Each structure stands twice: as structure tokens, then as C-alpha cells.
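>> received
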Amino acid sequence: MIFNFRRYENKYLISGTQCALLEALMSPHMEADPYGEYLVQNLYLDTEAWDLCRISTEGPLYKEKMRLRSYNGPGGPVFLELKKKYKGMVYKTRAAFPLEDTSIGWELSFCLKRNPLTKKLLIGYRRMAYREAGSGPGGDLRITFDRDIHYRVRDLDFSRPQEGKLLVPSDQVLMEIKTAGGIPLYLTRILSQEGIFPMPFSKVGRAYKDHWTSSTTTLA
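>> returned
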């Protein structure tokens, strides 16, 4: 089965203390996902020359990523996802993996045929997710907090979920606000009073830059 998402995503790099405070302040309006905290691993597919990752770092109007996403480690569900971003709007097409030929979807199929892709980068993290209270799984507003974000470019499978190099300091948390419309006024007020503002942040872009910076330093 194919799923499609269309939404804006605002990102905020915050401290663990700020994260706890925000969770408390938004509790009257938001509820935790029934899954609680869970493990996410994203295995990014790219060309041999890292074209998709490289383009992601250049801030273009349009960019796309192809990845396999695993939940809760070995044995958990896995999805093939095509994630595109155009003028700030994020579009995501997802299919359960392994794929059946009849369920790949034309967007996924087109991307795979157009680009000779291979496994290049794995990014993992622990995620706590919230949704608007009473909205159910399909609610418009979703807020996620990602901790222990790490990456690796070798041993690219889902069997070692905790291995890799930290992408941000261990005391920092990446918050994402995801919505098809605007951010609610109460949430805007909370963020403003706590001095928390959005910032550009790409896990893939940061991992790509860190990897090549580290490689260049090692060679030097």
C-alpha cells in the first residue's frame, strides 16, 4: 500500500532542559503517540558520487531523498520512502518493504529507474512523538523530539542500531513541528516566550558534510 504525506516541517535545535519544559507546557494540547519513544533508522540511497546528499547541502528550491526507514531495530517494520522538498513544502511517498511490483508507485519507481542508487549513509535516533490531543493518527499537527542522533557510512544494515558517530552533542534535541497548515497560536506563543526559533537543519546534509570533512582531515 502506498501512503502520501504533504506538510511543512519546522526544525529547532534545543537543549534537553528546553525539551522537558516544552513537553510540560504543551501537554494540555498535545498527547504522546501510543508507541511512546521508539527507535528510527534511515538508510539513505544515493549515487556513487553522493549526488542527492550533495545537492541537499546546497539549499536548492527542490531536492529529494530516497531511503529505507526501519522502526525499533531488527524485526521492526521497514518502509521505502521518497522524500521531496519544494519551496519549503515536504512531500513524502511511502511503501511497505519488501515491495511488490504492483505497489511500488510511479514516483518511487521513477526515482529508482532514473538514478542508479546504492546504500550510502545510515542515520539513527530515538524519537518521542506527539500529536494534537484527540486528533487520532491522522491529525494535522505532529511534534517530534529526536535524541542521540548518529550516523555511519559502513556496516549499513539495521542490526546495530546504536552504532555511529554523534551528529549533534548528546545534550541537544532536534524538535520538528510538522503540519499541513499553520502552527497554532498557543504553540507560537510558547516558542516565542522561551526564545526558541526555527533553524535550517538537515540530518543528511550535516552527516554528509561531517563525513567528508573528517575524511579530508584524515587524508591530510
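>> The longest helix spans residues 203-219.
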